[in-house]
Amino acid sequence: MRILKLTKDTRKNLLEELLKRSPNSYKQYEQTVNDIIENVRQNGDSAVFSYTRQFDGAEIGEDTIRVTKEEIKKAYELVDDALIHVMKKSLENIRIYHEKQKQYSWFDSRPDGVLLGQKVTPLARVGVYVPGGKAAYPSSVLMNVLPAKVAGVEKIVMTTPCNKEGKVNPATLAAADLAGVDEIYKTGGAQAIAALAFGTKSIPKVDKIVGPGNIYVALAKKAVFGHVSIDSIAGPSEILILADDTANPRYVAADLLSQAEHDELASAILITTSETLADQVSKEVDNFTRTLSRKDIIEKSLENYGYILIAQDMEEAVAAVNEIASEHLEILTANPFETMMKIKNAGAIFLGAYASEPLGDYFAGPNHVLPTNGTAKFFSPLGVDDFIKKSSIIAYSREALEPIYKDIVQFAESERLTAHANSIKVRFED
Predict the structure, then answer these.
(1) Which of 238, 327, 330, 357 is an active site residue?
(2) What torsion do the CA atoms of 362, 348, 257, 248 make, to the nearest 10 degrees?
(3) Residue 228: Cβ within 10 Å count
(4) 238, 262, 284, 328: which one is catalytic?
(5) For residue 137, what pLDDT band results from cuts at 50, 70 and 90?
(6) Helices and strands (H and E) in the chain: how many
(7) Number of alpha carbons in the 13 Å side-chain half-sphere of residue 347
(8) Cα-flanking dihedrals φ and ψ of residue 82, to 5°?
(9) Torsions phi, psi of 181, nearest 5?
(10) Taking the model in full, what pTM does it have?
């Protein structure tokens, strides 16, 4: 891996490079995505079936687009029992963690007849998109579905691509069934997002779409936002490790590679105050990479977006961490909890030598759907809040309104909204 001194220029150049991976940088695909969305909006199922034939090579129709109970039963037979057991344990951890995020309606009343409050209501229908291309990710099924279930969403609809035989990855189906998905449809890409956003004869319209996908899926979600809500427009995966001379170089190298293997656009960065650690990690990365199954992807990822940056001190290192605002942040310092208190921007923070990033991906319980491309400065991980909406509650008695009604009238008239003022005044006419 390349080793650079952390300077103002290297930080600026790094940020510019990382931002090139954002879906907002792929405008050349927008027209294609928009055409697909409009076709599905106008022609519904026939457009979905046509794109499924074109992109996935599968002949899907009204009778076969929805996954049946028999297909789900068969999926369980095809998945190793040990994996089913692990998914159940992971599911329970995710559920317990997200139950602590639940919000409840509240009301505050006063003796003069004022009642103010907030009504919390789950979304009625949510669509979960699950990729089905290079690899299957049943962990993402659990992470996207469980917060919606905890929130109380009435209906959860999942779409995922099928293979040429019209089959969906069995681990994906098992995870969806374990998590409580209500309906599963065999379609992917921008056409699936459009179907969820506008509805077709076969696929119901939803209120919100969540889940990761390729650039076409990301741009489709961006395009339909406003017609439906979305979780985020996710970019490629990224890890940032903040380490001092107490860190184990083998652990650091292994953790960097855990993200580099995702795809060629994944980012893996180490920021350290130790030149010795930097050299050791670089050597360990080379040693590990030779033996890993996704060697070609890892090498391309590190060539494009792999960095080891040496900071003068921890203060400079922390400042760079906060500016990069990484999706995953590991802190491997002498006192990681103390260091963590200085961190302002990160999707998920992993503390200490035994909290490696895959622990969060699969098992610990916090959500692994995280803000990318610096959006951790203003976005949060997927959670129960993403699947609820809030309504304000206001009730006043005449006795409570009378002492203040002239204040409201004055405010409204200052904005020249006389009908607003009149709406208050009529309640106190002689």
Answers:
(1) 327
(2) -110
(3) 19
(4) 328
(5) confident
(6) 18, 14
(7) 28
(8) -65, -40
(9) -65, 140
(10) 0.92
